[in-house]
Give the backbone structure.
Amino acid sequence: MSEFFTETIVISILAAMVRIGAPLILAAIGELIAERAGVINLGVEGMMLMGCFLGFFVTFETGSILAGIGAAMVGAMLMSLIMAFMAITLRLEQFVTGLALNLLASGLTLFWFRSLLKTIGSTQPNIDLLEKAPIPFLSDIPYLGIIVFSHNWLVYLAILSVPICSFFLYKTKYGLELRCLGENPRAIDMKGLSVAKRQYLAVLFGGMMAGLAGAFISVGSSIRFVPEMTAGRGWLAIVIVIAGNWQPKWILVAALVFAFLEAFQMHVQAVGINFPYQILLALPYVVAVIALMHRRARSRAPASLGVAYSRGS
Amino acid sequence: MLEQLQIKNLTKRFGTVIANDRVTFDVRRGEIHCLFGENGAGKSTLAECIYGTYRSESGTICFNGELVEFNSPRDAIQLGIGMIHQHFVLVPPLTVLENIIVGTEDAKVLLNTQKAENKFKELCARYELKLNGHAAIWDLSVGEQQWVEILKALYLDVKFLILDEPTAVLTPEESDKLFRILNVMKRQGISIVLITHKLKEVMQSDRVTVMRKGKIINTVDTKSTTREQLTHMMISSELAVQGLKKKINSESTVVQIKKLDVRGPRGGYAVKDLNLTLNSHEIVGIAGVAGNGQKELFETLVGIQSPESGEVWLDTEDITHWSPAEILAAGVGHIPQDRYREGLIGQLSIVDNLLLGMHRSPRFAQRGFLDQERVRAFVQEQVDQFEIVAPSIDTVVGNLSGGNAQKVVLARELFQASVVLLANQPTRGLDISIADYVHRQLLEKRKEGYAILLASEELDELIKLSDRIVVMFKGQIAGEFVADNPDLEQIGLLMAGGNL
């Protein structure tokens, strides 16, 4: 076991942690904004899967990864528009709507995968991997250079999204309005501001981020698309928002913890240590359950989360 | 132009209920104008129409001499109208300053907290308020939260401020302070509309407008009126014909409430040191504005809430700590204040709702299975007897009209109760014919020997039905009257917190 913790392997695990954490961070930051606005979007998984497929398909058809990422974001946003319409305009049960969207994405992407992406013999269509873009100078820093600054640009975007989100929430007027919205939308309404407009924008932003996260999983870290490729990462993003107590910095920490467990597990398997890997595979989810139980005691969930606002009579 | 606000013939309905009926109302620049009336008189609705929360169906609003139409509070805010709502509109985890500046023009894209803080401090100094701008709302006392609400309005430089029962949550000292603040505002030329049902506050205003049942009764100068005149205007003078009830002499005590103390939702006492006796063949009416402990008293009597101290006796048994099921089984029926929230399950059918509480009795269930035939026969019988109008007995209760929904509650509770009936606002929101039906049912049960406790905000209803009337104010019994020919002014005074 001691040979396992060599310098190379530890650095490799940490670098993998950052890479694996990136889509979790993107999706969780998007979900955070939606939940801060008072809408709980359980359709993240589906929106990620949609982004995952569209990202791959459009890249494959056009040869442009940027076009693929753009399509992923737009596709997931359209799904979040359905979510917003159901939850905000029609005031339907948000849980059910989110779950329905997941089923929709699951079915649609499988259908499109079978009908649009023809396998030629046993070879599936594939694309070029999104190139790594090491940052000049920073990537030369010992250890940190490899762990943080030698990934593709989507990873940097994910990491940057945390301080940007934090700044937006706590230092801008729109962030203040958003924080009020999830706690007491009436306070926004009675100042003469539109509750619905702000909630729509927040949910759409959440969808866009989920799409981006999905695109990362297909075009950002793979050359193929396989059905159900997101494999529960959207759900993990929702758990991360809760475990991160609805605060950007703790969301970053939570995402990295889950990503670390995953990276660790992969390396243990790869190195071939004699240890039942099923236990390691389950680790992130076990931690998720523990994190949730811990959080229950002193949750800072937005008070009006999941409750449709109406001015009432 | 003396009048800052002029409203002509404003009408606002909610469904079939007319909340404001051709209301004509004006406010002069720099005056404190009280809107006085009982709960449900339409005061808050009128205020929300002025603030743009609700849109009126007809009528005109003139502000500063110009005809205006408000589609949202934004329109009102832009004209300098502010409102302090009956319930706080604050965001508890955020700080005082954040609550004040959200949505104001001072906040550009980036929050300029320094500028906001300076203005906040200046306002605090001018109105002699001590508040820490960086404290979170949930760390503040209820009184301090009210100052934040006021600062929110002042921060927007309001010229016209509506306060909807602002003292409901304040201590007497804080209420005095509020009036000092209001007088400072008045000197600065701010017009103030104060909604209240407390006489003490009304007497500190310049003019009073009395509302009753959605209509304006009168507007008078406070100096030229008296408490008695105002009370008389507030409560209905057209009392319904009496004679429905005949005096019945049977004075065996059924329920005894001894020194009852019940905690309220906010920690203080909702019911304090309350003693009351209910006799058979008797209706005891509780007069008082809702929120003075009636709900807590009723819930304690049926076992939903636990009293902090005191006793409740039913005949010879101490039922103070019995469960709701045990109390129900002992023959106590309860018509709760909010029929949709506490009396019925809106998504279930008439059958299910009528059966609630009886679903385990051997009459309807054997070995855990409901005897559908027997249940349906029973329900049909009740629906016929109470003339519940519905497409079928499987109709979902939420789709019934208010009157028919209340009849379902009535049918169930009257069937289950055999000794005592507790009715809290049983006719609220019902039209006259259904209300009359409820009245006759209560009198019928009185004749059969039930002891009935009836709380109502409508004095004429209490006088029509009760043998005795007690006035409840802040959880205590402020006075007791024989219902034959009670002194209405005195009852009104006690309801508004006055002394005899």
